[in-house]
Amino acid sequence: MNILKKIQSVIIRLGNRNYGKVGIIGVPFDKGQHKEGVAHGPEAIRTAGLVRELKSLGLDVKDYGDISYKAKNVDGVNNMSHLGDVAGCTSYLSEKVQEILKDDRRVLTIGGDHSVGIGTIDGHVKEKENVAVIWVDAHADLNTNKTSESGNVHGMPVALLTSELADYWPHLPGMDWQQPMLSIRNVAYIGLRSVDRYERLVIEKFGITAFGMEDVERYGIHDVVYMALNKIDPNESKSLHVSFDIDSLDPLEAPCTGTPVRGGLSLREAVHLMEILYRTKRLNAVDLVEVNPFIGNQHDIQLTVEAAIHIIQAGFGYTRRGLKVPKGVTDMPLQTFR
After folding, report:
1. In this predicted model, what pLDDT tens digit does every residue of 29-40 receive, in sequence order?
2. Residue 171 marked ligand-binding
3. Is residue 193 within 8 Å of 216, Cβ to Cβ?
4. Alpha carbon 313 to chain centroid, angstroms
5. Is 247 part of any known ligand binding site?
C-alpha cells in the first residue's frame, strides 16, 4: 500500500470516532414498483422496536422521521413509471443523507422500495466521495428504461447510479440533480439468483463483481464477503454502503416482499455478512428495503420484520457472542448479576 493510500485509510478510521452515532430515515415510498404496501415498511419496522433495539446496543440514536417530498413535473420519458415521484423523493433523500453524515452519524434508511437507493447512495457519494457499495439482492437492478419489461424504477437504480452506464440513458427530466459519480468497479453484488439476460450481459461486459447464490454455496458467505471487499475496496480506504433488499433472503425467512425468489440467503448468512461489514469500522450507511407488511398473514409479517431488525442490529454492532461488559464491571462478583 503506498503512502497516499495509508493516509486515506487513517483518515477514514479517524473519521469514525463516532461510530456509535446513528441517524434513521424512514422512506415510505412505493412508486418504484406496482405492489401496494411496501410504503408501510418503515412503520412496521419501527413498531417492532427498532429504536429500542439500537439503543440497547449503547448507540446514540436520532430518528429523523419519515421524509416527505413533492413530485417533479416530468414528461416525455418512456417506460419509467412514476418518474416524477421517484425524482422528487430521491433528490430530497440524497440531501437528507448528506445532512446526517455531516452530523457525524451513520445513516440507516428504511424503505420503501429499492428505488430509494438512488437517493441514499447519491447522498453518500456526494458527502464522502470515496464510496464502495455492497448490493445485497436477489436481483441486479441494472435495467434501463429501454431494457426493463415492467418499467419499474426499483429495477434500475444501479444503472442510474454508475458512471459507466451513463451513456445508456436518455436525458431524464427531473433527474438533473443526480449525476452518476459511482464507478461500477466500486459495486459488488451478493445473493443474486434472478438476473435478466441484459443484466447478465452488462455484468460480463464491465466485469462487475457479482456473487450469486451458487457462489455463496461454493465458498460460504464468510469468504464471499471478503472476496467482495477485496475487489471493490482492496486498500480498505473507502466508506462502505450496504443496500440490503429483504428479498435477498429466502422467502421462508422473509415472505413479505414483492418479488420473492426461492433459494436465497438464510438469515444466519445475512447476519454474518452484516457483522463482517460492521467490523470494518467503515460501514457508514445501510439501506433496508422492500419489506411489505401487506403481503402474507400476521406470522409472515412478524417473521419478515424480525429478520429485518436482526440484519439492522448486526450492521450496527450487535454480536451473537454477547456485548462487551462495561469497564469496571469485570471486577464485580458474579453474584451481583443474580
Report:
1. 999 999 999 999
2. no
3. no
4. 14
5. yes
Q: What is the DSSP string of 151-217?
A: --GGG-HHHHHBGGGGGGS---TT-TT----B-GGGEEEEEE----HHHHHHHHHHT-EEEEHHHHH
Catalytic residues: 114, 137, 139, 141, 154, 245, 247, 290
Element (H, E) at 230: helix 221-232
Closest C-alpha to 257, from 214, 300, 311:
300
Q: Which three cell numbers stand for residue 189?
A: 453484488
How far is residue 149's CA from residue 159's CA, in Å, rounded to a whole number? 15
- Backbone phi, psi, residue 212, to 5°: -85, 180
What count of other Cβ atoms lies within 10 Å of the Cβ of residue 259? 20
pTM, two decimals, is 0.91
Give tens-digit pLDDT for 7-23.
Answer: 444 444 444 456 999 99
pLDDT digits (tens, 9 = 90+) for 160-202: 999 999 999 999 999 999 999 999 999 999 999 999 999 999 9
Q: Which CATH architecture has domain 20-316?
A: 3-Layer(aba) Sandwich (3.40)
For residue 76, name the pLDDT band (cuts at 50, 70, 90).
Answer: confident
Q: What's the Cα-to-Cα distance from 66 to each of 23, 75, 108, 110, rounded to whole Å?
A: 12, 27, 12, 9
Is 30 marked as a binding-site residue? no
222 is in an annotated binding site: no
